[in-house]
Design brief:
Elements (H helix, E strand, L loop, with lengths): L1 E4 L7 E5 L2 E5 L1 E2 L2 E4 L5 E2 L13 E13 L4 E12 L6 E5 L5 E7 L2 E2 L3 E3 L2 E5 L7 E10 L3 E2 L2 E8 L2 E7 L20 E9 L3 E4 L2 E8 L2 E7 L11 E4 L2 E8 L6 E8 L4 H7 L3 H12 L9 E6 L4 E3 L4 E5 L10 H9 L7 E3 L6 H19 L1 H10 L15 E2 L2 H18 L1 H15 L2 E3 L1 H12 L4 H9 L4 E12 L2 E10 L9 E9 L3 E9 L3 E8 L4 E4 L7 E5 L1
Parallel strand pairs: 7-18, 24-25, 25-27, 28-30, 31-37
Antiparallel strand pairs: 1-5, 1-26, 2-3, 4-5, 6-29, 7-8, 8-14, 9-13, 10-11, 10-14, 12-13, 15-16, 16-17, 17-22, 18-21, 19-22, 20-21, 23-24, 26-27, 31-32, 32-35, 33-34, 33-36
Helix pairs in contact: 2-3, 3-4, 4-5, 4-6, 6-7, 7-8
Length: 553
């Protein structure tokens, strides 16, 4: 997920709605991207012990949509198995504002409780036993988190959409709302015949019955609940294609926008096949090659959301001038980092967002060279980062998770070298594809591939709150016709005792001669000396590999 923050010079306007904290920033009348403290959770206290004793295998969902009344009539069939005992009931996350009309367990009507967003049904079973809970309900969904389930309109055209990250899928269907409980999913969406309804996976069928049209979508790859989505509107559609690296598969790229955005979208979405090809070559083949990649316009004003195989993109990001390519790169990268490999817990969210943010930099480097890489990383530089990557706290989606996460990967690349770095990405993807990974899992991959002890590296960047802050002093002494240069480098940051890192120092001499030295900084004070024939000018970290401020004393 990627969000817009706009700054109007010195004015910062903060809106708070149902826990949503969004900053909009307009600088020099142009968009700048960053991320707000937008979601409050965040331990797994919304999950009961009973939910960890079951494994949901399949959701079969049916939604009959009535946009003018802002209501839905729905049925959810939840198919699962017992993986741990003792178990006395099945617990599912589900908001309690709907009217439930029927509940069955394994085909028989059953008692249930629905209280404080928790649905419970009595069930005593052995390990390996399966169950089918079927819940029919109707009503108007609550708008929660960043969106939840929204009956919206743009210019008089109804547009229904969902945005469930991190824990709001349960605002519109009963589920085991853990990122680790991946499932297969069938969904049927019924709306007026003028409306196109789209969801994850592949289209199985579309059928017209009187004035209603029903679309049936299904996944063939596992999906986390927060990535399940639907969109329904008077969409115009167009398509492109992506050919797999081995040439054996041709996958559809499918686009859904309102009529006034059609020509603009054709411009803005034209890069997707190239991005897919680059990521496939760099990380491994697109993980959902037997389904699709799609983009649907929705009305969330703050950015885009990487719902699996059908990214939602804000109307404001479709302008026909390729101004928001970084958003499209970011959401597509999530299909490797976040969708194929999910987080083991929401504390590991930087594995989603930091990886996708750095993928932006990798693509711009691929297109335009090292200067584009440096420019992109400078755009992700902040003097202060709130919280740490290891403990993002009660707020997700801050610039720490996105931008410091990207910087960690950038510095890891500098630490281990390009060959090991890209092998790490490929190994990580191959090992954890279609499952979930933790930060510790990623560290283990890094150490195994690089054959280096990276405990200090990861500790300082995961546990440290800030960044490197260096002050330097340079002195020159002429002796026997030579110039002795002494550089004192002191770490002055207050939130971490000292970082260890390789610092590149470049000495520039007359006649365009330069000498580069790599100084391994391992203490709060480092002294480096060089003898040369002439007095040099000096550059520190000229290629912007370090998350650091470097100033003269």
């Amino acid at each position: 997920m990627k969000k817009i923050i706009l700054i109007i010079f010195f004015a910062v306007i903060i809106f708070t709605f149902l826990g949503l904290f969004i900053q909009n920033i307009l600088s020099n009348f142009s968009f700048q991207k960053s991320f707000s403290n937008s979601i409050t959770i965040l331990q797994d206290d919304y999950i009961t012990d009973n939910q960890r004793k079951i494994d949901i295998l399949h959701y079969k969902l049916y939604f009959d949509l009535y946009p003018e009344r802002k209501t839905l009539i729905a049925t959810a069939e939840v198919i699962g198995t017992v993986i741990e005992q003792p178990l006395s009931r099945i617990d599912l996350n589900f908001y309690d504002n709907f009217q439930i009309t029927e509940v069955t367990l394994n085909g028989t009507q059953s008692d249930y409780k629905l209280n404080d967003k928790l649905f419970s049904i009595p069930f005593v079973a052995d390990i390996g036993d399966t169950f089918v809970v079927k819940i029919s309900y109707e009503g108007t969904p609550q708008r929660v988190g960043l969106a939840g389930f929204v009956f919206g309109k743009r210019d008089g055209i109804p547009l229904v959409y969902t945005l469930s990250e991190p824990t709001y899928a349960s605002s519109w269907f009963p589920c085991n709302d853990l990122p680790t409980d991946k499932v297969l999913m069938d969904i049927k969406i019924s709306n007026d015949t003028s409306m196109i309804s789209v969801s994850n996976g592949i289209l199985v069928s579309s059928e017209i019955n009187d004035s209603r049209k029903t679309y049936h979508w299904k996944t063939v790859y596992p999906i986390s609940t927060y990535l399940i989505a639907l969109y329904s509107s008077d969409y115009e559609t167009f398509s492109d294609q992506y050919i797999s690296l081995d040439g054996k598969d041709t996958m559809s790229l499918e686009y859904y926008v309102l009529p006034d955005k059609l020509e603009k979208a054709k411009v803005d979405f034209s890069e997707h096949a190239n991005i897919l090809n680059f990521f496939a070559k760099t990380f491994g083949e697109y993980p959902f090659i037997e389904e699709k990649y799609g983009v649907a316009e929705f009305l969330w004003s703050s950015g885009a959301m990487e719902n699996q195989t059908i990214t939602g993109v804000a109307s404001s990001l479709i302008g026909g001038k390729n101004l928001f390519l970084d958003f499209y790169i970011h959401e597509l990268a999530h299909h490797w980092w976040g969708n194929a490999i999910g987080p083991k817990s929401w504390k590991d969210i930087w594995l989603n967002e930091g990886f996708s943010s750095y993928s932006e930099a990798l693509y711009f480097e691929h297109k335009s060279g090292s200067s584009a890489l440096q420019s992109t990383m400078r755009d992700k530089y902040f003097m202060e980062f709130s919280g740490t990557l290891a403990e993002p706290g009660s707020y997700l989606f801050t610039n720490t998770v996105y931008d410091k996460g990207a910087w960690l990967l950038h510095m890891l690349r500098w630490e281990v070298g390009d060959s090991s770095f890209f092998e790490i990405f490929r190994e990580y993807y191959e090992k954890y594809k279609y499952s979930n990974a933790s930060t510790e899992d990623f560290i283990n991959i890094c150490e195994n591939v690089s054959a280096k002890n990276l405990q200090k590296f990861f500790h300082q960047w995961l546990e440290g709150e800030g960044q490197i802050e260096l002050e330097y002093a340079i002195s020159f002494k002429e002796e026997n016709g030579s110039i002795n240069t002494t550089i004192e480098i002191e770490q002055v940051q207050e939130d971490y005792e000292y970082y260890e890192f390789p610092l590149e120092i470049v000495f520039n001499f007359e006649k365009d001669e330069s000498v580069s030295h790599l100084v391994n900084v391992k203490s709060s004070l480092t002294i480096f000396e060089l003898t040369s024939d002439s007095k040099p000018t000096i550059e520190f970290d000229p290629n912007s590999w370090l998350l650091a401020s470097i100033v003269e004393k």
